[in-house]
Each structure stands twice: as structure tokens, then as C-alpha cells.
Write a structure and sequence with these properties.
This protein has 132 residues and is an alpha/beta fold. It has a single domain, classed as Rossmann fold. It contains six helices and five strands; from the N terminus they run αβαβαβαβαβα. Strands 2-1-3-4-5 form a five-stranded parallel sheet, with helices on both faces. Strand 1, helix 2 and strand 2 form a beta-alpha-beta unit. The radius of gyration is 14 Å and the shape is globular.
């Protein structure tokens, strides 16, 4: 029960350009107990929102451009933001995955996996937010 109280205080930024996917992810996160979820639909909007502190940032890689996720990651690094950053993308490119980890992401989850992706995202949050 105490763990749910901690989850309910985590501030999330969800960067996803597909409204249907963003809506479904937000629904699942709410079911898991996350209450403070803000959304951005592009790299530019995400950059504007980075002035607000977030515990976790979850970002797609391919939005308005194929490299939009890297734009977000580079801005996070440039600003020295210490949020947990999880990439959730259909981009299964190994090079992009490696490059994302070099930029400091905490996890890289493929939307193409057959497991419950939303449960995987929650597990990644829980595994990486023990210090909260």
C-alpha cells in the first residue's frame, strides 16, 4: 500500500505524437496508480515542458521527424536533467537503442514486443524509482 502512495506522487512527462497510443498509455498508467501525467505531442512541446521538474520522462523516438526522440534526449542532457528517461518506441533499431543509452536513458522498450508493454513500462518505473 505504501508503494502506491509513492507512485501517486511521481510526476511524469509523456512525449508521444499518436493520440490513440498516448491515451491508452495514460489510461494504463492511471490504472497502475500514477496521477501526475503531463503530455507533449512533439519534441518542441517536450522541450518547453522541460522547465518543469519530472521524476520520469517517457518518450517516443519517431515523432514529427525520425530523430525527434534524440532531440528530446539531447535537450535533457544539455540541461543536466536527472529524471529517469524511458524510451517507448516502435523503432527497434539497435544503433538508435545504443545511442539512446549513451545519452543517458534508463530503459528502451519496444512497442513491438508481444508482452503487455504498459506493464513493462510500469515495471521499469518501479525498478528505477526506488530512490524516490
Amino acid at each position: 500500500m505504501e508503494k502506491n502512495k509513492e507512485i501517486s506522487t511521481i510526476r511524469l512527462l509523456l512525449v508521444e505524437d499518436l493520440p490513440s497510443y498516448s491515451h491508452e498509455l495514460k489510461e494504463w498508467l492511471t490504472i497502475f496508480g500514477y496521477q501526475h501525467i503531463e503530455e507533449a505531442v512533439s519534441a518542441a512541446e517536450a522541450e518547453e515542458k522541460l522547465d518543469t521538474p519530472y521524476d520520469v520522462i517517457i518518450s517516443d523516438m519517431r515523432m514529427e521527424e525520425n530523430t525527434s526522440g534524440f532531440t528530446v534526449l539531447e535537450e535533457i542532457k544539455r540541461r543536466n536533467i536527472s529524471s529517469i528517461v524511458i524510451i517507448l518506441t516502435a523503432n527497434d533499431n539497435v544503433r538508435h537503442c545504443r545511442d539512446a543509452f549513451k545519452l543517458g536513458v534508463t530503459d528502451y522498450i519496444s512497442k513491438n514486443w508481444r508482452d503487455n508493454i504498459f506493464a513493462m513500462v510500469d515495471k521499469s518505473f518501479q525498478t528505477n524509482t526506488l530512490h524516490f
